[in-house]
Amino acid sequence: MDIGPYVLQLFSGLSRAMVLFLLSAGLSLIFGVMNILNFAHATLWLLSGYITFSIFQFLGEQFGASPLLLLPSIAWATALMALIGFALERFLIRQTYERELPEQLLLTFALVLIVGDLIKLIWGVENRRINLGVEPMEMLDTLVNPYHFVIVGTGVAVAAGLWFFLHRTRFGKIVRAAVYSRSMVSALGIRIPMIYGLVFAAGVGLAGFAGGVFLPLLPMALGVDHDVIVQCFAVVVIGGFGSMLGTFVASLIVGVVYAFSILFWPDGALAMIFLIVIVVLIWRPWGLFGTELRY
Amino acid sequence: MSAPEVQPGWLARHGLARPVAMAMLVLFLLVPLLPGEYWTQVSTEVLILGLFAMSFNLLYGYMGQISFGHAAFFGVGAYASAMLFVRLKTAGGSIGMLDFFLSLLAGPPVAAFAALVVGFFCVRLTGIYFAMLSLAFGELLFYIVFSWYSFTKGDDGIQGLLPPLFFQDAVNYYYLTLAIVTLAFLVLWRITESPFGYIMRTLRDNQRRAAFLGINVRLHMLINFVIAGSFAGLAGALWGPFSRSVNPGLLGWQESGVAVFMTLIGGAGSLIGPLLGSVIYTLLQAVVKMYTVYWPLTIGTIILLIVLFLPGGVLGLIEKRLKARRSAGDGET
Amino acid sequence: MAAILEVTNLHKHFGGIHVTRHVNFSMHEGEQSAIIGPNGAGKSTFMNLLTGYHRCDAGKVVFEGRDITNRSPHEIARRGISRAFQVSSIFVKMSVAENVRSAVHAQMRRSFSILGAASRIGVEETGRVLALCGLESKRDLIAGELAQGDKKRLELAIALAGKPRLLFLDEPTAGMSIEEARSTMELVDRLNRELGLTVLFTEHDMGIVFNHARRLTLMHRGEIVVQGTPEEVRANEIAQKVYLGEHHV
């Protein structure tokens, strides 16, 4: 049997899983802590991709093109996105905490349209991609882009870091406590608004980071965010709102199932994902690793 | 959840439901007097999407659940009707009057059946889970239509849905749409003002309490889901011959978002709100697109402003004005 | 007199905690009695079990000779059991009259009427219930905007619209002024006396309990400790220890 295509799909699936994880982790945290479902999360991810591209290009012009310039580009883009996230929470999202769910959805949905169109306004309709010029590696009967390893490694490292942060640091513990009971945390004398701002900034920062990291692998294109966000919802639902472990496992499931489905049913791969979502929601509405909370 | 932004049913309470509906009907009747076909076409779109949004509001404004997959039924209705249309078409590419109406009639029952299956599962959940499950079903149906090329023509969509010669005239098709949407509106009005319609409101406000009144909550929700789905299917059926084609995008979540937008812009508290929302949304789109390609940016900004400064939509704003005037008149605060 | 409600060996635990344990309880037709007990005694859970909101782990509930154990809330409501909640559980965005009217429609089995006019069905019955509960003048107000006492009265009205033969009231006077509490309990007495409605209520105010209940059931830690007339319970030693010892009234 020729295992080449399977190996290729496995790597592509794992990479996809990592990006989904980086996005969904923020999405899930934001939802867990402040009950806001951020429709614009993937659009901000896309924005970060374009921003990273522009920084990379700018640095290239200044210092001469080099693949290593990707590192500062990602760092700058991540910081910028975190700042944007903080500002969004402070000036927009905050207005809707006391409102009903549909209005909150509507607000972030409006951001999808606004940010998506701003990207078009600034960068035009052309796709953006960074070519690092890395030679594909030959392994297991096929050629694999070694950058896959970078992405998977980064994803796992971030997951581990996130786990450490949430379970071993004071701030992380506060954030986790806020997922379970906001009133409790505020009774402890912790300033909830600050927590919200920082969590939103961190979530958007993670998305921004993912946008930069993924750039050498797949081009950034207008409208991609619309597909990615519903896949992130799928991840969060499968894993369970607010559960980091669940989000990680669900990312792997979605990424890998998607990649292998492509081999058998190219146009319907996403249908498989939504089938899984439906089964999970019917069987365990709170997800594989979530607990029955709120609603 | 927080306090409601809109007091539902206030139009009726002010005795305004009938006058507003009549005024809108008169305005709609006069549209073809405007020069050129453009505004007639835009108004046809207003009506079809308005019907779609009103059907969505049966779930949202009346039953209290937000569906992000409602476009699936709009799309299924459009496809069911389009596929029958294509079968009934003669070799010459034209369709007989009777066959044309037959194809329109195919939309609602097929959409209702889809809603029955999807709703069976969705009504077991509420809130964010209801929204997510409806989204997942909608996307599933979208990708099935998208990828089942031999049956649905996939991404290509179904083209050449040219109605009979008489209805190829924009004004005639507009009046046909107006007649059907008016009829649908009257039926929807009866439903929302029926005991069943008020039971829906009780489910929106307090499902647990409704159960203790002897209401089979899931069964009532399911029936409402099917009704909403079939009216969305009717809107979808009208869409095909209007745009001469159908495509998988009609089932996508962005299309569901349009219904949500219209409902929130117009106000979810009344039946006519979403229709008014469609007037605002679609007209605005028609005007903005004359000047710029950045329509999403424009509508996004408008929605942002509405959410921030105009909770309750346009009708909500009018209500506040009315209330203020009334209390000023009474000398009360 | 025939027993309208017969509960045998009712058992319920959440996780490892037994919230009701071996509860045996019965009511006669036309009886008006109260369940008392300190917070967490299992009173609300008991009502939730009887009305189908929680599933029983073991035991049997028989109402008017028919087994209703673990039936769903709506089935139990249709058999003729209504309940009013401690925290008023009304339809906040609807008007007072619409609240009651929908409850009347449900009782008339007209909830599936899709094309009928709601405003013309059950009008008299709605008016009667509103009058009974003294809510006529507030019929067009939005339920969510009512004062606390009126909300509780609407709560009772919704329960009565179901034309129950057995009525559960969970803390019917909580949050009411003394005057409101008095008139509410007078209404309950009247329903019991004139219509023969069987009433079971929980109440914190011992004054109300001893004035309005002809039989008392004292619960503690999920078990029934004492049952009897107010005098018997008052005189009971265990009861004093469990309950009166903690709450001097």
Structural account:
The complex is a heterotrimer of chains A (295), B (333) and C (249). Chain A has 295 residues and is mostly helical. Chain A has eleven helices and two strands. Chain A has a domain at 21-223. The radius of gyration of chain A is 19 Å and the shape is globular. In chain A, a hairpin with a 2-residue loop joins strand 1 (137-139) and strand 2. The longest helix of chain A is centred in the first third of the chain and has 31 residues, at 4-34. Chain A is 72% helix and 2% strand. Chain B has 333 residues and is mostly helical. Chain B has one domain (10-332): ABC transporter involved in vitamin B12 uptake, BtuC (Orthogonal Bundle), CATH 1.10.3470. Chain B is built from 16 helices and no strands. Chain B is globular, with a radius of gyration of 20 Å. Chain C is α/β, with parallel strands linked by helices. Chain C has helices spanning 43-50, 73-78, 96-107, 123-132, 148-161, 178-195, 206-212, 230-235, 237-244; strands at 3-14, 17-28, 32-36, 58-63, 66-67, 81-84, 166-170, 198-202, 215-220, 223-228. In chain C, the strands form two sheets. In chain C, strands 6-7-8-3-9-10 form a six-stranded mixed sheet, with helices on both faces. In chain C, strands 2-1-4-5 form a four-stranded antiparallel sheet, covered by helices on one side. In chain C, helix 3 runs parallel beside helix 5 and helix 4 crosses helix 5. The chains are: A mainly alpha (295), B mainly alpha (333), C alpha/beta (249). Chains in contact: A-B, B-C.
Keywords:
heterotrimer; B: 333 residues; mainly alpha; ABC transporter involved in vitamin B12 uptake, BtuC; 16 helices; 75% helix; 0% strand; disordered N terminus; C: 249 residues; alpha/beta; 6-stranded mixed beta sheet; 4-stranded antiparallel beta sheet
Give the overall form of chain A. Answer: globular
For the largest sheet of chain C, list the strands in their spatial order. 6-7-8-3-9-10
User: End-to-end distance of chain A, in Å?
Assistant: 49 Å
**Helical amount among residues of chain C, as a percent range?**
25-40%
Strand content of chain A: under 5%
Low-confidence stretches of chain C: none
Give Rg of chain A in angstroms.
19 Å
SSE order of chain C: EEEHEEHEHHHEHEHEEHH
Q: What integer is the average pLDDT of chain A? A: 86
H/E element string of chain A? HHHHEEHHHHHHH
Which strand order spans the largest sheet of chain A, edge to edge or round the barrel?
1-2
**Average pLDDT value of chain C?**
88
Roughly what fraction of the amino acids of chain C lie in strands? 25-35%
